[in-house]
Amino acid sequence: HNPGIWKQQNKSHKHGRHRSKSQIDGTNKGRVEATRMRRKHRKELQKVDRRHRLQQIRSQKREQVLLKKRNVGVGGSPPHLVLLVPLHKSVDTSAFSDFMKLIGTSDDCAPVEAPLTSAGFTMNVGRLKHRFQIFQPGSVCLHDVADCARVADAVVFLVSAEKEAIDETGFDILSCLLAQGISSHGACAWLKSRHPTKKGIIKCLEQYVGEENQPHNVKWPFHHTVQPPTLFNLPLIQQVAGMKRKGPGMLDQRSYILVEKMEFQCGVEDDRGVLKVGGLDDSNFCVTGHIRGSVLDVNRLVHLPGWGDYQVKQVDTIVDPSLCNVQKISKVGASGDEMSCDLEEETIFSDPSRIQDLVLEADPNPMEGEQTWPTEEEIMEAEEEQVKKKVPRGTSEYQAAWILDSDEDWREGSSEEEEEEMQSPPHDGGSQVSTQMDDDDHMTIPESEIDESLSQYDDTMDEDDLARFREERNNELFPDEVDTPADTPARTRFQRYRGLKSFRTSPWDPKENLPSDYARIFQFQSFDRTRKRLRNQEVDDATCVDVGKYVTIHLMNVPKVFVTSHRASSPLTLFAMYPHEQKLSVLHFTLKQHGEHSIRNKDKLLFQCGFRRFRSKVILSQHTSGSKHKVERYFPKTGIVVATVYAPIMFPPANVLVYKEREGDALLVATGSLYKIDPDRIITKRIVLSGHPFRINKRAATVRYMFFNRDDINWFKPVELRTKYGRRGHIKEPIGTHGHMKCFFDSQLTSQDTVLMTLYKRVFPKWS
């Protein structure tokens, strides 16, 4: 017989012999076995030595960070940027500027030779061996203050000596800067003598920013100055110089400039290189300042906040006048003669073959998609299903193909915009108010459900705000519930929705039914890998300018309207960009509401992401860890929400501020950070269709008011049903022609239960 699996197989006898050397050599075929190295040859460190080695590495990194912070304003580094921000309308910033100038003209400080510009003035303190550049925002607008605080090394808040040290505008500025992230900060006030107001001011600041709002207890350095200030009263300057420096992480990874001088050259160069002055609107724009943060690559793009992205033509390294003053003081010989400062001037030009382009959107090709020709069987089936139409006499077949034979065909072929205009009347029964939700899913609001808190609003309240409050309140009571239209088939109204067996585990292809706007954006194969590669990319020394250089940057094709509309008192900043940051993609932000505001999905908001500022219509969704994320119709008052927009690419870390524009100003409504860049993130909108159990017979029930015709019931028959009391079931069959249907559930229903059907569709940001 043939042996099976139960046949006994004995082990082979171990005879105890070993292979000979010739057999081993034949098996190895010339390969030599690696010998184990001894500890003294391998220099393996013991546990104590390894601990000491790690401690040395940590100490070296800590010293590098501290050395970088201590070099601010010292030696050949750029001056220490100090921003003066008033927090009360009664504070006179000119008095503080005069006080700083008075200190700067003392015998211990170098004289200020540079003229006063929007970037402030520079003074050199010989006693501290420190250079300071003191400036202030051009206005109390949140955008101007935030742009200035983003590049400042220290922020000094100027408070009032009155009973209220900070007014309402000051609180808005303070909250905006703390949400954005600021460097070292302190407070200062004019006090004639030691006054009990000082203790109240410190208490006010610590109460506003304490342990609850900060990861660590914030110690507010406070300084008071007496009138008139003496020449050698330098405690404020010493306190600013000794502050613990901590700024936004974005500034350490890219170069930036606070513009001290600007010049617009209107015209073009001819073949001989001569500049022609003409009536052109776009030409070269020259900005001058110190390079801070990181090295500047002339082949990369730069960004002017509020102006846009531009290419660099050339960078001229020039002599820093304030640095010469420091060297003159430190290089005075025994005879008292001043030594001249010799600094090399050089010019670096950008390479036209390597410079980055200004491409914002991809060029979509509508014929790029796959085109398939129908088979003969599909053509025959289409001809058999073709319905004869009644057309006027003399109409050709081509003309008859364009005639719609019913209103239902028109609705099936309607566009998304026409579908959104369709109205759904409420059900009968009771006084009801119909309001329009986002994406035009309609909901009825019974007057009895309106909260009694509406009585706190007076008659002068705007009707739009009142309607939005009612919608938001009704959405809290009945989340995502919509009414089925009685005059439109549900299979037509909700044809883009689908049912899911499980929202968490059911598959959903991220490349399915993408909008045409997705052909205009860019996507990374691996965003994290690209970010790490660009951060660690080595730059070419021939096309880079080191940190601390005083340079003049020539920008190409800057519109003249930007220069003419710029206020001379408002400081201007410039930031260098990484590759691909000028291209559009889908950005996701994690936001938390600042205060209490009514923000609806698809509202147009103003975003400040890092150094960029743009407007866009936002899509709000839940911040979950699954593969699908549900849309939030309204911005929740508490918790974190994810906002999705079309915007230029930005590499994190980057803080995000969201404003709601109002007349002449902007209101801060949310704060957060950049989450990720992923066009494949699936954001689904959920709607819930509700029905009422008409008759109940054990596990079977007759449900009505969910649909109003037989065809809709057959269309949504595969979708699972659930109830508010946790029962699950399915549709068995329709009953009659008026929307009644027979359903089976896992257990018997109660008369007060409600039958629900959940449908989903994917939504995308609005291109604006």
UniProtKB/TrEMBL annotation:
Segments forming domain Ribosome biogenesis protein BMS1/TSR1 C-terminal: 481-763
Amino acid composition bias (Acidic residues), ranges on this chain: 405-422
Gene Ontology molecular function, alphabetical: GTP binding; GTPase activity; U3 snoRNA binding
Name the record gives this protein: Pre-rRNA-processing protein TSR1 homolog
GO biological process: endonucleolytic cleavage of tricistronic rRNA transcript (SSU-rRNA, 5.8S rRNA, LSU-rRNA); maturation of SSU-rRNA from tricistronic rRNA transcript (SSU-rRNA, 5.8S rRNA, LSU-rRNA)
GO cellular component: nucleus; preribosome, small subunit precursor
Annotated spans, Disordered: 1-43, 399-443
InterPro entries according to UniProt: AARP2CN, Bms1/Tsr1, BMS1_TSR1_C
AARP2CN domain span: 233-322
Comp. bias regions, Basic residues: 10-21
Role description: Required during maturation of the 40S ribosomal subunit in the nucleolus.
Pfam family, one: AARP2CN
Family affiliation: Belongs to the TRAFAC class translation factor GTPase superfamily. Bms1-like GTPase family. TSR1 subfamily.
Domain of life, per lineage: Eukaryota
Phylogenetic classification of the source organism: Eukaryota, Metazoa, Chordata, Tunicata, Ascidiacea
